[in-house]
Design goal:
The protein has 192 residues and is mainly beta. The protein is built from 1 helix and 16 strands. It has a single domain (2-183), classed as YVTN repeat-like/Quinoprotein amine dehydrogenase (Methylamine Dehydrogenase, Chain H), CATH 2.130.10.
Length: 192
Amino acid sequence: MRFKWSPDRQLLASGRNDNRLLVWNQSCSTSIQTYTDHTAAVKAIAWSPHQQGLLVSGGGTADRHIRFWNTLTAQNLQCIDTGSQVCNLAWSKHSNELVSTHGYSQNQIIPTLYPTMLQLARLTGHTFRILYLAVSPDGESIVTGAGDETLRFWNVSTKCRANKESDSITKVFLKIVKLPEEYLLAPLSMAA
């Protein structure tokens, strides 16, 4: 299950493995909205810091869609087929850009301009599903962690892209860090 508070801390969104996205008011013990459009587990959730009530969710391998919701009116605003599992979503702090990370089959990072859904780049380098995404405090870069046991640091801000040469979008990769053995998860064993 995934959880995200709205920027005003009044609503909580939860994405579930039963393909449902729920919105909760902190004063209620039951959900106030339920969205059932995803056809696989809801793997990612993010509230827009730029538009009140705008919630975005991403579906797993059998779904592959990013869906935009207006929680003020309970409407589905937009749906985009990404072609691969959506693992993480994060909004830019400075502009109306959404960063999505993906798993099978493309293992990529895609910064996208909302609401036009213009893809600003397709960042590749991970060889397995991108499990983790964190935005730096200044909003200028992100770090991703994947099943390939690496952390990758990326410069994704509009300001930084505007200051670089036109071909630099393919050079936004900054650094790869191989995780030490003590940080790796041991594979789960199955009882016979």
